[in-house]
Amino acid sequence: MSSIQISNRDLSVSLYPATVIHADKYTDTRGGAFDLPVRTTLHNDVVFRSKQTNEDWPVHIRNLNLPIYSNQDVILIAVEETIIGYIDTRTDLYYYTSTDFVNNFDLGIHPNKIWITGVLTAIALFFFLPEEKNLLFFLPLIGMYFFYRIHKTLLNYRAEKAMDSFLSSR
User: Fold this and answer.
1) Residues 6+ apart with CB under 8 A from 19
2) E strand or H helix at 113, and its extent?
């Protein structure tokens, strides 16, 4: 067991040899007619079986087209006991089952703090600005939204780079 540091937090990383006992890919299509546009989401339902304990670990993967199939030998990548990826033992390539490290491991600023700050600033602007400039109270909300998206994107990028460097040095 090793650890990586992301956003001033030490996260434990474990590797487990396993076999894919079930891999099912399907798409979910929504929209059309009056609910435009049509959106298609790719889903993968995968069940891994540990080679050490014979325990089964089901994982649901959204919006990632991964090369995974039944009876495939893999090494699972787990961070804080959450499976975030696997290494294909035949090709020695690794794949992430989720690209949202921020939400999975509660990294960075919590979104509620950002929204509360934006709403309180908007309320203050609404009451203190002259009436002809009342629409400016939307600016803090829009600014906080963009701040959160940029912050989350940068943290996910840093987390992925930390995982990449860990996996390349194994």
Assistant:
1) 48, 49, 51, 71, 72, 73, 74
2) helix 111-128
CB of 101 within 8 A of CB of 85? no
Helix axis angle for 111-128 and 138-168, nearest 10°, is 160
pLDDT in tens, 99-136: 888 888 877 788 888 888 888 887 887 777 777 676 77
Contact 57, 94 (CB under 8 A): no
Q: How many residues does the chain have?
A: 170
Mean pLDDT over 152-168 rounds to 90
Q: Which pTM was predicted? A: 0.79
Between CA 150 and CA 116 the distance in angstroms is 18
CA 87 – CA 94 distance, rounded (Å)? 4
How far apart CA 60 and CA 132 sit, in angstroms, is: 51
Output the DSSP codes for 66-100: ----TT-EEEEEEETTEEEEEEETTTTEEEES-S-
- Prior bond to 37 cis, omega within 30? yes
100 vs 73, 91, 94, 115, 131, CA distance in Å? 25, 25, 16, 20, 42
Question: Residue 31: in which H helix or E strand, if any?
Answer: strand 9-32
Residue with tokens 């030490």: 10
